[in-house]
Structures are given as structure tokens and as C-alpha cells.
Amino acid sequence: MASPMVQDFTTPVLRNVDLGRGNWLLEFEAESAAVEMRPAQFFMIGVPGSDVLLRRPFSVCGLPGTFADGRAGAVQVLYRVYGRGTKLLASLGPGAPLHVLGPLGHGFTSPQGKNARIVFVAGGIGCAPFPAFLAELEREGRRATMIYGARSADELPLLDWFRERCDSVVVTTNDGSLGAPGLVTGPLEQMLRGPGSERLHLYVCGPTPMLKAVAKMALASGIACDLALEAPMACGFGVCLGCVVPTHEAPDGPVAYERVCVEGPVMRAERMAW
Which residue, 20, 140, 227, 252, is the most exposed by fewest CB within 10 angstroms? Predict the structure, then answer.
């Protein structure tokens, strides 16, 4: 499928839903931009007239039809309030204008083999690309299992939504406030040792240390693993070079540097030269 054409447009906020504990779901109109958009592609979003000059990258969380209460033609992004940019977003009400650039990058694609066991591995707000992907899989008659980890129970947005739609959701928290204490690598290691592990296909999004750990485990087990990378970026379309990551075509091959915003954010684990 050809990549959708990038658009630069102004659109009003339709909803800005406080999910609690600092997590928000922002909905805006993007009907034409979303027609061919893939889960894990992203938008650069800014607020006209604000003193936050650079737009911020946000993975698409919901495409038209992902959420039952979403408006026709609307998309959603999930965010957590960390700094000035996200605090500004959280202050916006319906009708407030947004500057939006997208869709950007390359997203997730479904496994070609129908026997693949699809597993999402998410770290905190790294769950963002998975609702749209799960909705797509459901339309294809496919299911997914999820391993969902965070530092604490406060950082697991949309957990109930995932529990209703995934075959199972295994929760881990660093502080033990919900689910099993520890990291996502714990239940993943058990899964990799279980029957049928050779059919696993991992889709991973979260902080870079988690991506590195999961990628290493997947490579050692010889299973497919797609990573949705995170990196600081100022432009979103490959000019600033602020989001480059080391990659290689083969494990012993020369190292190159590719842009998360253009060649990513989704890359196969074996491509990474961390």
C-alpha cells in the first residue's frame, strides 16, 4: 500500500477527554488524512498563537471507527501531561484550533502468516498505537494478546478498553501497584518458553530501554518483532535530523543512521544497531 500523502492543516478540537491520572485522549477531524493511515504513524501537532513554537509528535491512537463514541472522520491521539506542550493541549476545549501535520512515518502491518500469534508489548503511554491496530486486526478476524507495563498503576491508560478486546492482558508495574511486580520482560520470557512460541509476532512500543530489552529477547528466540521507536524530533519529516538511530542491514554489516520520522517509526528488531 502506498504511503498516504502528508497534509498540513488546521482543524478544531472535537473532544479532549480527561482519562484521569494525567492521561488524555484528544479527538480532531482528519477525514482525508486518515484514509490510508496506518497504526503507529503519527501527527505533529501544535497550537496556533501559543508560545510553544515547535509541534509535538503524537502517534495516532484511534482512526475512524476505532472508538465507538468517536465521530465519523475523526481521529484520536493519546497523550500524558509531562511538560509545557502537553499541559497546553490539556487546556484546550472543543473548537480550539490545532495545527496538524501528517500522517507521517511508517506504521504497523499485520503478519502475513495467518497462524501468527500476535502479541502487543506496551510500556505506559506506549500503548497509544495499539487501539487502532487492534481495531484493524478485529476487522480481519484476528486477535491479539497484550503485555502492558508501566512504573505504576497511574500510567496504564485505556487498560479496561484493552481488557475488553484482547484475548488476555498481562499487567506489570515497577512498584507492584497493579498486576505482577517487575518489567514486561518477565511475562514475555515465560511466553517465549511456552508452546507455540515460534509463531509469536511481537509489536512493541514504549521507552527505548524497554524496546532494546524486548528486541534482544526476540532476536535470541528468532521470532518476528516490530518496534515503534521513540525519539525527540523538531520537524517530523526528515529535515532536522534530530531523531536519527543507528541501523544495519545485517548484524555484522556497517552501521548507518536512519530517521525515526521518515524511515520509522516502525522498524524490525534485526535492523537496529543499538
Answer: 252
Identity (one letter) of the amino acid at 123?
G
Taking CA atoms, 258 is separated from 121, 170, 214, 224, 244, in Å, by 23, 33, 20, 21, 5
User: pLDDT per residue over 205-243, tens digit each?
Assistant: 999 999 999 999 999 999 999 999 999 999 999 999 999
Low-confidence ranges of the chain (pLDDT < 70): 1-4
Domain identity same for 88 and 58: yes
Residue 222 in any domain: the answer is no
| Sequence letter at residue 248 | H
Given the DSSP bridges, would you call strands 168-173 and 180-181 parallel, antiparallel or unpaired?
Answer: parallel
Domain C-terminal end among 71, 104, 137 = 104
Do both 113 and 213 map to the same domain?
Answer: yes
Which cell is 255 given? 552501521
**Contacts of 82-90 spanning 24+ positions with Cβ under 8 A:** 84/52, 85/52, 85/54, 85/56, 86/24, 86/56, 88/47, 88/50, 88/52, 89/16, 89/24, 89/26, 89/45, 89/47, 89/56, 90/16, 90/18, 90/24
How far is the C-alpha of 220 from the C-alpha of 168, rounded, in Å?
25
Domain boundaries, position 143 = 108-217
CA distance 70 to 226: 28
Give ∠ CA 16-226-228 in degrees, rounded to 5: 35
Residues 119 and 212 both lie in one domain = yes
Rounded to two decimals, the pTM is 0.96
The residue from 170, 196, 217 where one domain ends is 217
